[in-house]
Each structure stands twice: as C-alpha cells, then as structure tokens.
Amino acid sequence: MAEFDIDAFRHRFRDRAAAVKERGVPPLEGEARRRFLASAQQDYIDYSLVADAEASVEDGALVLRIPLSGG
Fold this sequence. Notes:
Elements: H1 6-22, H2 30-52, E1 54-58, E2 61-65
Antiparallel strand pairs: 1-2
Helix pairs in contact: 1-2
C-alpha cells in the first residue's frame, strides 16, 4: 500500500466543505427544500470537522482527534 498522505486527505475534506458552501440549491419547495438545506449544513459540518482534525497514523490506523469542547 502506498504511504498515506494525511495532509492530502485533510485537504480533500477542506475542498469538500468549500464545495458544499458553493453549490446551489436545486428548485425544491417546502419540506424537500428544508431537508436539502439541513443535509448541506450537516455535510459542511462533517467535512469541516475532518479537515480541521489533528490526524496521525498510529499502529496502522488513522486517528483523528477532534476537540468537542469550545476551548
């Protein structure tokens, strides 16, 4: 297996987070629109968390440390 590039991995997630913010909203109405926007917001949060995580490879496993507290 090729060496895992943590920085490239995190960069891909940062790009995904940016793409979520840049994509338009399809012509949806009512409940479908609300669900789409909620899903986009959750995607952004998830991608941003991974992109900003402290990442390392330990004993052959990818370890992401994501602080859940505000401080």
